[in-house]
Amino acid sequence: MNENPYIHLNDEQFSEYALGMEPAGDAAAHLSQCDKCAEELARFSASMTEFGAAALGWSESRSPMSLRQLGLKASPRPRFAVASCALAAGFLLAVGVSEIAHRDHRDATDIHSAGIASPAGEVADCSEAEIAQDNKLLRDVNMAIGEETPSPFSQYRLSRTDVARSRPRMGPRSQ
Amino acid sequence: MIHLKDQVNVISELDDIDELVRLYWPRVLRYVTFSIGDRDLAESITQDCFLKAYRGRASFRGDCAVSTWLIGIANNLVRDQLRLKKFQFWRKANSTALDITELASFLPSGESSPEARLLARERSEQVKEALNGLSVNQRKVFLLKFFEEMTLDEIATMTGMPINTVKTHLYRAVTAIRTQMGEV
Predict the structure, then answer these.
(1) How many CA atoms lie within 13 A of B16 on its CB side?
(2) Where are the domains of chain B?
(3) Domain coordinates in residue numbering, chain A
């Protein structure tokens, strides 16, 4: 056996070998001759490998869910929740407005289909003959009123000019 | 340097979320479980890690392996979790640590004798006990080195520690495990 108890690998040299590095100095020469250090290093490496493999085997057994399931399971972030609420409110508002507009349009359609013409349609449908007829009617009404109704001034034998002169002035007086 | 073709393949890989989980879930879960010491919480964090990775896959530059990128995300999530005071309280009150009996059932058996399997189980238990006694940073760099087989430079980049600090943590971790195994 090549064990030399006086120059075994120190902690730093052992750690460097364990980490896959090459220690400086005569550590390599010692390791090639010292069974104790070589065995310990081999045992340490085997322990790490076994432990890592067992841990990986365990985590492989914890079979993950589908990520789509994970996505569904994940709790939404607050900002997403706010955005979702805003989106839902906007959607409801849009649906409400369109429903009201649709109802108004439907009412108008119902009225039109019932034979009641809208004012705009009435104006558009008026012919020149009808307009002339209406104008003539208005003139006749004016003439009838003008002839039959006596003027209040004629009762007192006053003309319109006299009434205008007797009205007090509201402007500034001249001295 | 990563070629464009390889990058396209990586991006396609990231787009297939189920394949991403199938390939990398065990490694990420292993790292998180032994980093945080609680398997229930580890599964939750691993789940968050994959969701975060999938949502942020456009930010993956392809300058490292996908597994390294995922471990980096998991590492940040673990760090955030460890900072929470409620976690520290909860860990004391209701920790669901991985049992060595459960772990031992996954030891590679090969054609070894019952005695050899018993010794392997005993060694694994010693490693696990030693891991529990390490500081957070020592455990982190140890797992990145021995589980994820990262180089010291990669560990330093991921953890933000100077490389000499990484080395120091690793030396202490190795010594602690040797002590637990009765070698020192």
Answers:
(1) 10
(2) 1-98, 99-184
(3) 11-61, 125-165
**Measured between alpha carbons, how far is A48 from B180 in angstroms, rounded to an integer?**
13
The interface pTM score, or ipTM, of the predicted complex is 0.85
Do the Cβ atoms of A15 and B170 come within 8 Å?
A: yes
Helix, strand and coil percent figures for chain A, each rounded to 5: 70, 0, 30
pLDDT (tens place) for every residue of chain A, 175 residues total: 444 546 788 888 999 999 988 877 788 888 888 899 999 999 999 999 999 999 999 999 887 766 666 554 544 444 445 556 577 777 777 777 666 666 666 555 443 444 334 444 444 456 788 888 888 888 887 777 665 556 666 666 665 555 555 555 554 544 4
The shortest C-alpha distance from B175 to chain A (Å) reads 7
Distance from CA of A29 to the nearest CA of B (A): 21
Domain made up of B1-98: CATH architecture: Orthogonal Bundle (1.10)
Contacts of A71 in chain B (CB under 8 A): 51
Q: Could B107 and A54 be called an inter-chain contact, meaning their C-beta atoms sit closer than 8 Å?
A: yes
| Chain A residues lying within 8 Å of B77, measured CB to CB | none
- Alpha-carbon distance of A47 to B85, in angstroms, equals 34
Q: What is the pTM of this model?
A: 0.64
Using CA atoms, how far apart are residues B183 and A15, in angstroms rounded to an integer?
A: 13
Supply the CATH classification number for the domain B99-184: 1.10.10.10
Q: Which of B43, B48, B127 sits opposite A51 (nearest CB)?
A: B127
Distance from CA of B97 to the nearest CA of A (A): 13
Partners of A57 on chain B (C-beta within 8 Å) are 106-108
Task: List Cβ neighbours of B23 (8 Å cut-off, separation of 6 or more).
Answer: B13, B66
